[in-house]
Amino acid sequence: MSQQGYVAAPPYSQAQPGMGAYQGGFGSGPTQPLYGHYGGPPQALSAPSAGMMKSSVSPAASVPLPPGPSQYNPNVQQNGSHPQSYPAPPAVSAPYGQPPHSLYNSMASPGPPPTQQLTNQMSSMNLGSHAQGLQSPPPPASSVVQQPFQTPPPSTMAPPQMPPGLQSPHMSPLMSPPQSPPASTAMASQSMAGTSMASMGRPFPGPPPPGLGGFQQPGLGSAGQPGYPPQAGQFGGYMAGAHQNMPGPFTGPPQKKLDPDSIPSITQVIEDDQVKQGGQVFTTNIRGQVPPLVTTDFTVTDQGNASPRFIRCTTYSLPCTADLAKQCQVPLAAIIKPFASLPKNETPLYVVNHGDTGPVRCNRCKAYMCPYMQFIDGGRRYQCGFCNCVNEVPVFYFQHLDHMGRRVDFYERPELSLGSYEFVATLDYCKNNRPPNPPAYIFMIDVSYNNIKSGLVKLICDELKTLLEKLPREEGMETSAIKVGFVTYNKVLHFYNVKSALAQPQMMVVSDTAEMFVPLLDGFLVNYQDSRAVIYNLLDQIPDMFADTAESETVFAPVIQAGVEAFKAAECSGKLFIFHSSMPTAEAPGKLKNRDDKKLVNTDKEKTLFQPQKGVYEQLSKDCVASGCCVDLFLFPSQYTDIATMADVPSHTGGSVYKYSNFQVETDGEHFLRDLRKDVQKSIGFDAIMRVRTSTGFRATDFFGGIYMNNTTDVEMAAVDCDKGMTVEFKHDDTLSEETGALMQCALLYTTISGQRRLRIHNLSLNCSSQLSELYKSCETDSLINFFAKSAYRAILNQPLKNVREILVNQTAHMLACYRKNCASPSAASQLILPDAMKVFPVYMNSLMKTAPLVGSTELSTDDRAHQRLSVMAMGVEDTQLLLYPRLIPLHNIDVNSEKPATPVRCSEERLTDSGIFLLENGQSMFLWLGQASSPDLIQSLFNLPSLAHLQGHMCALPELDNPLSTKIRSIISGLLEKRSNSMKLQIVRQKDKPEMLFRQFLVEDKGLHGGASYMDFLCYVHREIRQLLT
Ligand SMILES: [Zn+2]
């Protein structure tokens, strides 16, 4: 029956598209009124019975496994494996053919600029000012949606302010004996996941008596230690003397010393989950099922909900009402990584092709066909799970239902049975209703003095010769469809014609950077395979051409503008790889000046250090997104470069920013090349627009990521790669039903690396409950902390750091106090009781507040802080988890014969031993720490040196020695480098050497080097806040 289809496109095909260029087809316009308008019964159409709803919405646990790929019907295929069965993409014989010519002419009215043969001398030829119409329109007042940091809504709880007068009574040492069985039967019967501190061996003591250090109330920090200005924070870590005697608060009589092992440990939680769920299959057929931790090694089988690799949520059980949500203050959010890499043993996404008809969508809310559509009326109609609208089934899509009410082709159609899949998009989803051209990569190399002198330019050119052979290609295709182009620049831009027919590349110089244009079309963006000889020639010549340069000034915004113009002219999307050394100070649009000012740190104006300069770059971001131009910035600074501004365009276009301070080829070259290789070869989609639809009762209200938003619902990205995650916050607008649950559908329209327009759909169903205990039980700490990191990092653009940190602590206390009040069984107030799923949340939160952007220390580089802020905004859950809790792996006692990965220990100085060797990594930095009493045997095995004293500084890799220990440790390091999305530079530090400070700042359970409390102190502080809230 279904075979007859794919031809008819009766009345429905006209309805959706046509709301402007291509967004209409995607559904921007018509869906607007969806929210809040359908609170009543579905219009005149009978709702299906509860039973019917249930069968579609909460898949039974007994759903059989979906069939293998071969069982899908012929027009459904595994992603990329049979490209020939697609409708062939339209032949694009001459991407720069006729239309661009006219375009070109209109751009450069004086006629095609002369070109000149490239010679070794490379006499520059300046093309004067062209084209009036190219000036950018004035930037809009504010095109980027910035929303205020979520302030804690008023709640029934007392404000967390602690009046100084209350200090003493509450600070009496309360070393309560373990309350009989605190987390025992009563809690179990409530099916509560609470774990009290007492149940973990020891009770948690109350706050310390005054005078013993410990905590300080907000606003009383006048007695700060040198280097820890009073504003730095609100924790006891800042109180003079607090840490002279660590762990101060707990050492004095009459307290017993609190065993650090008794407070919840992230490494233990990770290990326990690995033991429990590691190596197992996670089947996504159950609504609201909490997945294993991101750190756990597991396999996913898609049976109707998106894999946690694509979507993770802060909780898998939403509170039914807005009031409950407000009461607990647990953020409701999803972190979506639409292009997440899948391990080899998991099935890639299937691609569904409905031909000219395009995907079947709900007439009202435009949701795409998915497992949450309930077929009724013998299969002739279906009810949308999102808006409840009842739709006619298009004739071509009709299929009979079985006795369960399920379509008999259920397992043959990914869009009926799977959580994630793709649709081939029709022309309605393409810009100007034309199929897109394959994307292009433009390599733009700053050839000013610094980059030439450091050897960077030669390094890049040499690498590109081999790297360009490995451009990403569609599976099954012999070569990459991605075009390449080359630009070098300092104060002026040099474009290169590398057309395959040329014997020598040709250079054209544009010196009028105020009105940037691309002086050539034909021959600028080429197929690498075709033009390989000319490109080789060019890459050989570039380092020599500029070898004697004295030019130290650069432009920057015009470089990006040139890329945008090139993509516009070629009518394609793509990515710019910009290799840049210094702040752009040359006279040109986007010229920057040094505005770094450490005096602003810890003042209300500190936020300006994170804010980009407005104007040129703001407009540029907008242009880039409109043209599908993603910008990756590789920065090689030797001083302040205003990263807050320079990274503004990359951070709004789905790009990445890499920073190599004081770059030296010998020590940083390989590190940079690893990044470049990963970046060029990443799986990626271009010119993307994403929409998150939800079932009635809640909706997506806020978005965080390397994104751009023109309106409140469409998330635009010039590109999105496998490492980029968007965080989406949800709010209620009605009551949610426990029975139907809460559904979300993320639809991402994008252009593939071969130039095919596709829709990638991820569906996820969550539970809803009127019991807060369900919410706490279904929380995911790693996702929560991702949300908090992003919302805090955005908030510091508008608010003083101090406020942001206060909000974070207050919200932490609120969430935990609400649990205590509503979900935990009664116990002594002196006990800290944490929900099991959130028991390590305070460690992460404390670590977050000690990160460079939030810490407010003059010792930190403004650029580093801005860089970290922007990097985190685009991170998925794995990356924020690792960043906020580094892996600290002991290597001195490693079993060289074991396949089992070494077990990390807690990130605290206490775990280090003088005779130990430890590896620490957080996805951004990597250290090998050598204890001062390391065994000479170990040093000999690793370094081929008789003792530590012989170790030279600046070593950034272990020598390749032929012994089991060396082999084992090098393989651990290379395994980590392989696994992480970025390269990390290995830094080797000896205990007590000065560089050890760099390492110590990653021991996140300890007091922060630049301010911030130890984990223990923070936990005590939070505990006290909770008690305040509960009294
Ligand atoms: Zn609908």
UniProtKB/TrEMBL annotation:
<dbReference type="InterPro" id="IPR036180">
    <property type="entry name" value="Gelsolin-like_dom_sf"/>
</dbReference>
<dbReference type="GO" id="GO:0008270">
    <property type="term" value="F:zinc ion binding"/>
</dbReference>
<keyword id="KW-0653">Protein transport</keyword>
<dbReference type="InterPro" id="IPR012990">
    <property type="entry name" value="Beta-sandwich_Sec23_24"/>
</dbReference>
<feature type="region of interest" description="Disordered">
    <location>
        <begin position="1"/>
        <end position="262"/>
    </location>
</feature>
<feature type="compositionally biased region" description="Polar residues">
    <location>
        <begin position="116"/>
        <end position="134"/>
    </location>
</feature>
<dbReference type="InterPro" id="IPR036174">
    <property type="entry name" value="Znf_Sec23_Sec24_sf"/>
</dbReference>
<dbReference type="InterPro" id="IPR006900">
    <property type="entry name" value="Sec23/24_helical_dom"/>
</dbReference>
<feature type="compositionally biased region" description="Polar residues">
    <location>
        <begin position="186"/>
        <end position="198"/>
    </location>
</feature>
<dbReference type="GO" id="GO:0070971">
    <property type="term" value="C:endoplasmic reticulum exit site"/>
</dbReference>
<feature type="compositionally biased region" description="Gly residues">
    <location>
        <begin position="212"/>
        <end position="224"/>
    </location>
</feature>
<dbReference type="InterPro" id="IPR050550">
    <property type="entry name" value="SEC23_SEC24_subfamily"/>
</dbReference>
<dbReference type="Pfam" id="PF04811">
    <property type="entry name" value="Sec23_trunk"/>
</dbReference>
<dbReference type="GO" id="GO:0005789">
    <property type="term" value="C:endoplasmic reticulum membrane"/>
</dbReference>
<comment type="similarity">
    <text>Belongs to the SEC23/SEC24 family. SEC24 subfamily.</text>
</comment>
<dbReference type="Pfam" id="PF04810">
    <property type="entry name" value="zf-Sec23_Sec24"/>
</dbReference>
<dbReference type="Pfam" id="PF04815">
    <property type="entry name" value="Sec23_helical"/>
</dbReference>
<feature type="domain" description="Gelsolin-like">
    <location>
        <begin position="901"/>
        <end position="972"/>
    </location>
</feature>
<dbReference type="InterPro" id="IPR006895">
    <property type="entry name" value="Znf_Sec23_Sec24"/>
</dbReference>
<feature type="domain" description="Zinc finger Sec23/Sec24-type">
    <location>
        <begin position="359"/>
        <end position="397"/>
    </location>
</feature>
<dbReference type="GO" id="GO:0000149">
    <property type="term" value="F:SNARE binding"/>
</dbReference>
<keyword id="KW-0813">Transport</keyword>
<feature type="compositionally biased region" description="Polar residues">
    <location>
        <begin position="71"/>
        <end position="82"/>
    </location>
</feature>
<dbReference type="InterPro" id="IPR036175">
    <property type="entry name" value="Sec23/24_helical_dom_sf"/>
</dbReference>
<feature type="domain" description="Sec23/Sec24 beta-sandwich">
    <location>
        <begin position="685"/>
        <end position="769"/>
    </location>
</feature>
<dbReference type="Pfam" id="PF08033">
    <property type="entry name" value="Sec23_BS"/>
</dbReference>
<dbReference type="InterPro" id="IPR029006">
    <property type="entry name" value="ADF-H/Gelsolin-like_dom_sf"/>
</dbReference>
<protein>
    <recommendedName>
        <fullName>SEC24 homolog D, COPII coat complex component</fullName>
    </recommendedName>
</protein>
<dbReference type="GO" id="GO:0090110">
    <property type="term" value="P:COPII-coated vesicle cargo loading"/>
</dbReference>
<dbReference type="GO" id="GO:0030127">
    <property type="term" value="C:COPII vesicle coat"/>
</dbReference>
<dbReference type="InterPro" id="IPR036465">
    <property type="entry name" value="vWFA_dom_sf"/>
</dbReference>
<feature type="compositionally biased region" description="Pro residues">
    <location>
        <begin position="150"/>
        <end position="163"/>
    </location>
</feature>
<dbReference type="InterPro" id="IPR007123">
    <property type="entry name" value="Gelsolin-like_dom"/>
</dbReference>
<dbReference type="Pfam" id="PF00626">
    <property type="entry name" value="Gelsolin"/>
</dbReference>
<feature type="domain" description="Sec23/Sec24 helical">
    <location>
        <begin position="781"/>
        <end position="880"/>
    </location>
</feature>
<feature type="domain" description="Sec23/Sec24 trunk">
    <location>
        <begin position="436"/>
        <end position="680"/>
    </location>
</feature>
<dbReference type="GO" id="GO:0006886">
    <property type="term" value="P:intracellular protein transport"/>
</dbReference>
<dbReference type="InterPro" id="IPR006896">
    <property type="entry name" value="Sec23/24_trunk_dom"/>
</dbReference>
<keyword id="KW-0968">Cytoplasmic vesicle</keyword>
<dbReference type="InterPro" id="IPR041742">
    <property type="entry name" value="Sec24-like_trunk_dom"/>
</dbReference>
<dbReference type="GO" id="GO:0005829">
    <property type="term" value="C:cytosol"/>
</dbReference>
